[in-house]
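Lecture 7 notes: from sequence to structure.
We start with the chain below.
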Amino acid sequence: MQSNTKTDEHYCLTEGIQKNLSDIVLRIMYGDQTVLVQKHSKPGLIVMSERKYENFRDPRKRFNSQAEWDTLFKRIDTIKAGMSEKYNEEL
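Predicted structure tokens for the same chain:
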């Protein structure tokens, strides 16, 4: 399973991103990086490639094959089978 949720770089909105925007965009598009943009030292937004965005939108795209997808659901079923009925009803 592919997992790319960490941010590779952090930029302050008023400093780093304005000076380096074209370089940042190229690294995101072709280097498959993720960038956290902050304003006043607070996280504001994350900029990521379209591929990473699609992986977040459609969880099936996070897997390399149908077999990996099926394995995940077998594990979920195993976990659910070990849970009490109270928790299964909530799910």
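Points to note: The beta strands are 9-12, 35-39, 42-47. Residues 62-91 form one domain.
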